[in-house]
Description:
The chain has 538 residues and is α+β, with helices and mostly antiparallel strands. The chain contains 14 helices and 13 strands. Strands 3-4-6-1-2-5 form a 6-stranded antiparallel β-sheet. Strands 8-10-11-13-12 form a 5-stranded mixed β-sheet.
Amino acid sequence: MRLLGAMRLSIVLVLVWMAHASWSASLIPPEQRAAVQSLMTAYGVGTLALLGALRVWPARFYLNWALGAVLDLVVLALIILATGGVRAGLAPLVPVMVAGSSVLVRPRWALSLAAAATLALLAVTGWRALSFDDIDTGNFVLAGLLGLACFLVAITISLLATRLKAQEALAEARGQDVLTQLSVTRRVILELEQGVVLMNVEGRISLLNPAAQRILGSLPAGAAEPVNRAAWQALRQACGQLQSLPPDQTMEVSLPMPEGVARLFRLRVLPIASAAAQVAPEPPGDGIAAARSPADILVLIEDVQSLQERAQQLKLAAMGRLSASIAHEIRNPLGAIRHANSLLTEQLQQAAAAGPSARLARIIEDNTVRINTIVEDVLAIARRDRAQIEAIEPVRVLPVLLEEHLHLKGMAADRVKLVIASDAPLWFDSGHLRQVLANLLDNALRFAPASPGAVKLEWSASASGRLQLSIADAGPGIEASHIEHVFEPFYTTHTQGTGLGLFLVREWCVANQAQIHYRRLPAPSPYSGAFIIEPEPR
């Protein structure tokens, strides 16, 4: 629309200049020259006014177009009338005007304009025939031919413009689809747990998603390499080796992380068309670091440790379902065995029987109790109820839980030293907290000496200011080689243990958005080590 407006204004200015130029004397009679010049000047002013009105009121386009068409027809008809009729050199401007005005309107508007132009040409020819006694059938034939040309031009231009608009709308719709697909693709790349790196054959990075930034560091503006240059150099070297291998090959490589430790990653290199990198990236701030350079190498980075953890979780989930099913089936015959053993024990007591029979009955009872404990732990793993996290007051709740547990186990109250050094609430599910403390206290009391204060339960803030709940004991402690395995299921160093207690403790802590770990305590601390629970800060 702006281009056509500029073209129309240019034609008007040419006509105004032509009316005032000295060489146009041969086209315009001397007695009409002043009138034509005034008319062309008014024509220029009117055109400028219509173009300005269109910018102010773009919604009134068809009204503006109609006024402009009327203005063009009136001015051209008067010029043709003043310069000698349709045989003069300016008459062909009428089809040109119709062609220019038919580009932006529907076919019926274009045909209406062509009809008006034809009538105007015939009217000018008839007026000259009556006013100047210039009756010439050739003038009417020429006017009719020019009118026919107006219709042909209007139909052709209008149909072409309509088809062009349809193609433009289709192209715009497809462009929107492409933009939508690009947005979806970028969003998927943002959410991928895999690191995604796009780079060209020279190794210059074109795209770095957030997962890759956590490994390689951010990409500063205008930089060719990310912040973690050691990892980037190792990655480039591995990619060079992968490119020499057959497609779809992977390689495991150890990359130094920003925090100073090395982790194992699995790399995969995929070649892509370089034209795909010609799309202009979105403005920064969407979580993807990008630079304007062609990219034809796609590098996928997978954390091997995370893959192993997910595989372990799937394995544990399958094992948990199987174990829960088996445990459920064991409970009924186990209950029958315990009931029968109780009846047998009563008969032996009534008969005052002693010796091997009574000892065998006690062995049966002890082992059935142990099996029942294992079954209850397995079923607890399978259930894992959703945590209802709440604010627990340690000053009010911890002493009660500790007193109940020691009373249930028949132990002296001074075996455990309770220290509450913070008034901050403990955010945890109350039922889960009771089970966590029961498991950890049982574990500590089993290995700690029987002296007072051999176990310490403490709620305090660490040196970094983070709140923590610790259970320390003065026993031998866990050996360094066993620390990394203590939370694994069925891992135990105690002959009577099930290997599920600490695993359950970790599961309950994870359900309550808390972290748990074991730490050995150096001298001169009277305690060898402690389990430390760190709830999520609130």
